[in-house]
Amino acid sequence: MNTNTRRLMLAAALLIALAAGFGLARLTGGQDAETSHAAHSDDDGHASHGDDQAQESHADHGAEDGHDEKGDHDDHGDEAAEGEEGLVALTQQQIEASGIQVVALGRGGGSETRLSGRVESAIGARASVAASVGGRVERVIVAPGTPVRAGQPLAVIVSGEAATMRAGAEAARAEAEAARLVYQRDQALVTQGVVARQELEASRARSLAADAAARAAAAQVAAAGSPNAGGRVTISSPVPGVVGAVQVTPGGFVAAGDLVANVADPAQTELVFSAPPALAAQIAPDARIEVTGANGSFSAVVIGAAADVREQGGMAIIRARPESGPLPPAGSPVSGVVVAEAKDDTLTVPADAVQTVEGRSVVFVAGDDGFRATPVLAGRRAGSRIEILNGLSGDERVAATNAFLLKAELAKGEAEHGH
């Protein structure tokens, strides 16, 4: 083999060797790079994994902390909610501004009784004017509805009996005057010794008797209406008011005691109710009656209760007067509700104090921090008060007037808490 050929073969071998080395190195470098990259990736992945674990650990810890904090907060909130349940916190200034009235509990239950009654003229403000003597009605001066004054004439009666009374009174007065003159003359004669003292004493007795007879005759005439010499008697009204009914007509005849007219003062009226005798015994003066009439409802105060001898069924009457304002006209029908108090220690509160919250009867008990809704067992209602059978001890003070404002505020607070 010549020299040139050997050189060419050496060059080719060198080129193959270089090519093989370059590929191996490249291959080795690529693997190393990949290995290095993988290692780096593993390192990064390990680090990331560690970071993730750290983050997860931190997140778990934070979650646990957050859960605990939230749980603690919720627990505190639940405890606060439980501690504040049913409480309406108000200051004294807010209580006064809202018009809420705080009252103590009362004692003594009671029962309601409905009564029927009417408006009547008050005692002393009505009169049934009757004829004092029998006679003929000469003139009727008034008619129904006529207003009259006390002493104003209603009718004129001509009576022979009255004329006789008048004449008898005048005769008695004359006899008394004659007896007095005799007694005076005997007094003068006794001093002169003409008449004995015994005669003087007898004349004095006759004078006294005549005076007494004259006074009796004058009183009889006055009771008969003070007739004149012709026997005319004027029947007058003893009270001011309005004539109700006139029972006589001109030309008619009346006997002594017959009704001539009724007179009543419409400004002086009272309430009269029919009641069972047992109830009348339980009703004391100054008790309240809630009355319903033609003009609406109003309150009245009892001024008397007693058996009514006019009633055949043994009923009693209860008389009352309104606390304020005028009554309906006399004769108007009315109805009333009266409360008979019981002799016991049952707790009672004003009717406004009992409110219904979630289907339960509650009262708002006043405390230092406001009002707390306290469930109670309500009993009977008697007038403006309600019995409390259970739930209160009796020492509490409760909201009465405007207690519904506390109910509304409590419902508002529960709605906000639920939201």
From TrEMBL:
Keyword Transport: yes
Key words of the record: Signal, Transport
Residue ranges, compositional bias (Basic and acidic residues): 34-79
Domain CusB-like barrel-sandwich hybrid: 127-264
Signal peptide limits: 1-25
Chain spans, region Disordered: 33-79
Source superkingdom: Bacteria
Domain CzcB-like C-terminal circularly permuted SH3-like: 347-407
Similarity annotation: Belongs to the membrane fusion protein (MFP) (TC 8.A.1) family.
Name assigned to this protein: Efflux RND transporter periplasmic adaptor subunit
